[in-house]
Every structure is written in C-alpha cells, then in structure tokens.
Design a protein that fits this description.
- By secondary structure, this protein is an alpha+beta fold.
- The chain has one domain.
- Helix content is 24%, strand content 30%.
- The longest helix has 13 residues.
- It is globular, with a radius of gyration of 14 Å.
- It starts with 10 loop residues before the first helix and ends with a strand.
Length: 108
C-alpha cells in the first residue's frame, strides 16, 4: 500500500484516529458508518483499559499535526470505505491502533 498521511483523510476519519490515540487501549462500540465514514454519536460508547502501574496516557502521535498512517489504520479506513453504510459494533484498540472490528450490515 502507498504511504498515506493523516491529513489526507477526511475529517470523520481523522476524528476516529484521534479518538483511538486518546484511548490507547480499549474499545469503541456502536459507531454508525454512513457513506464509508464513521460518525461518532451520543450512542457511541468508549471503553478504556487502564493498566495499573502501566502507561495509560495518550499516544505520542496525538500531539502531531501529521504523520504517516500505519498499516492497521489504512486497513480500517479501506474496510469502512468499502462497507458503505452499517454499524461498527465493536472496534478494539491496542497501542492506539485498530486491532479488531465487529461490524453489522443490512442485507440488501
């Protein structure tokens, strides 16, 4: 895949990446996807894993205006774009990166 920078993404995609960086370890649930873009709503639930005695802060990339996206983020964006409309039931995050997604789609 090509190297893509954060600023090349649209605003909803950037907001999701920033939220993952803030969470660092945890899960985001109930994310509507409309036209391939994530929409964080009042029904979106954020769960954080707090490691006692461990590093629990934001990812250092959060302080940067731009950076090259990692393969896991590119795979997530590609999947959302291809998904069109649906719901991410669970997005598991490890080290500020997407690790696993569980999606809900409607049959045509």
């Amino acid at each position: 895949m090509n190297q893509i920078k954060k600023t090349e993404l649209n605003e909803p995609q950037q907001k999701l990446i920033e939220l993952m960086q803030q969470i660092n370890f945890g899960r985001i649930s109930n994310i509507p996807v409309v036209g391939g873009n994530p929409e964080l709503t009042a029904d979106t639930i954020i769960e954080r894993e707090i490691k006692l005695g461990g590093q629990n802060g934001n990812r250092p990339e959060l302080a940067k205006d731009d950076f090259t996206l990692k393969q896991e983020v590119l795979a997530l964006i590609e999947h959302l774009t291809g998904m069109g409309d649906g719901i991410i039931r669970h997005l598991e995050i490890k080290h500020g990166l997407p690790f696993l997604i569980r999606i809900e789609e409607r049959a045509a």
